[in-house]
Amino acid sequence: FKLNIYFLLKELAQPDSIQIHNKIRPKDVPGTLLNIALLNLGSLDPSLRSAAYNLLCALTQTFDLRIEGQLLESSGLCIPSNNTIFIKTISEKLALKEAHLTLEFLEECVEGFRNSTIELKHLCLEYMTTWLPNLTRFCKQNDDNKRAKVSMILDKLITLTIEEDDMYPSIQAKIWSHIGQVSDLLDIVLDCFIKRSVLGGL
Questions:
Q1: Rounded to two decimals, what is the model's pTM?
Q2: Does residue 102 contact residue 135 with C-beta atoms inside 8 Å?
Q3: Would you give the DSSP letter of residue 165?
Q4: Distances in Å between the alpha carbon of 54 and those of 7, 124, 140, 201, 202?
Q5: How many angstroms separate the CA atoms of 86 and 96, rounded?
Q6: Per-residue model confidence as pLDDT tens for the chain (202 residues)
Q7: 154, 161, 197, 146: which is closest to 179 by C-alpha?
């Protein structure tokens, strides 16, 4: 499976595909590659969609991700371009059953978002939303490193909101409106906004 994943990453790392980071830490691999697979599933290029689908299959087998028969690896499978519902469904199932991937997955979502087309940015917002409530589990742990990672992700989302003018309404609707409904996150979110305001001289 390692060779299979490596081959699929090489296939995805073409000029027209989503940028893949040069340095991926071993513990970040499942969450990072999961976002690469989901994002490329929305590509206009059918060969990239097929490679992304097979990467997703390889990830579920290699890391025992629990999707329960949703995927069937096949070299001749045609992946339609209008598959947003399928991508969201896969993401929802994994967010529920593989919540431990949340921090690495969301961090990669933000990085992938910056390098994506406008269409794929909208797709990214659709499938990452379901992972946001999972951040609470890392805030409740007595692990300062995990809490710091949550703060870092929230700060990156704030930066994304500021920098992505064209996507501002969608980011507000998909990200912040959902985060606002998670009461356990409000304190850390407010803390991030206050610190960001102070740094900005407000």
A1: 0.84
A2: yes
A3: G
A4: 10, 19, 36, 48, 48
A5: 16
A6: 443 445 555 555 544 444 444 444 545 578 889 999 999 999 988 888 888 888 888 888 888 888 766 676 556 666 776 789 999 999 999 999 999 999 999 999 999 999 899 999 999 999 999 999 999 999 887 788 999 999 999 999 999 999 999 999 999 999 999 999 999 999 999 999 999 988 876 5
A7: 154
